[in-house]
C-alpha cells in the first residue's frame, strides 16, 4: 500500500504539477507582453517550482535517499504558488467570485495529504 502511495505522489509531482504549469504557460503567453515584467517573473518562479516537483517525483521513483526531503519542499513550494496565484497573480485566472478562500483551503488540504504520504512512505524506508 505504501508503494502505491509513493507512486501516486511521484505521479502527482512528475506529471500533474508540470502539466498544470504547461497549461498556465499556454494560457498566459498570448497576453504576456501586456502583463509586463511581473508576469515573466511569476511564470519563471512557477516554472522553477514545476521543475523542482518533477525532480522530486523522479527521485521518488528512483528511491533516492533525499527524495522525501525534496518532495516535502516541492509540495510546500507548489502550495505557496497555488495560493499566490489565487490572490496576487498578474496572470490570467478563471476563478469565480467568492471561491478564492475555499480553493486556498483545498490547496492547503492537498499539501497536508501529500505531506502525510511523504511521511508515511518515509517510515517504510526506515523500517
Question: Overview of this structure, please?
Answer:
The structure is a single chain. The protein is 83% helix and 0% strand. It is mainly alpha-helical. It is globular, with a radius of gyration of 16 Å. The model has no long low-confidence stretch (mean pLDDT 93).
SSE order and pairing:
Elements: H1 2-28, H2 32-35, H3 37-62, H4 67-87, H5 100-126
Helix pairs in contact: 1-3, 1-5, 3-4, 4-5
Q: In sequence order, what are the helices and strands, one letter per element? A: HHHHH
User: Which structural class best describes the helix and strand composition?
Assistant: mainly alpha
The portion of residues assigned to helices is over 70%
Discrete helix count? 5
Low-confidence stretches: none
Oligomeric composition of the shown chains: single chain
Amino acid at each position: 500500500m505504501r508503494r502505491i502511495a509513493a507512486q501516486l505522489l511521484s505521479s502527482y509531482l512528475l506529471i500533474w504539477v508540470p502539466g498544470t504549469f504547461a497549461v498556465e504557460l499556454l494560457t498566459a503567453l498570448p497576453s504576456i507582453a501586456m502583463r509586463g515584467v511581473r508576469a515573466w517573473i511569476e511564470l519563471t518562479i512557477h516554472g522553477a517550482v514545476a521543475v523542482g516537483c518533477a525532480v522530486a517525483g523522479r527521485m521518488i521513483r528512483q528511491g533516492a535517499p533525499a527524495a522525501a526531503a525534496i518532495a516535502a519542499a516541492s509540495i510546500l513550494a507548489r502550495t505557496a504558488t497555488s495560493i499566490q496565484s489565487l490572490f496576487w497573480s498578474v496572470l490570467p485566472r478563471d476563478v469565480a467570485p467568492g471561491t478564492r478562500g475555499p480553493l486556498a483551503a483545498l490547496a492547503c488540504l492537498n499539501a497536508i495529504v501529500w505531506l502525510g504520504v511523504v511521511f508515511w512512505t518515509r517510515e517504510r524506508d526506515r523500517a
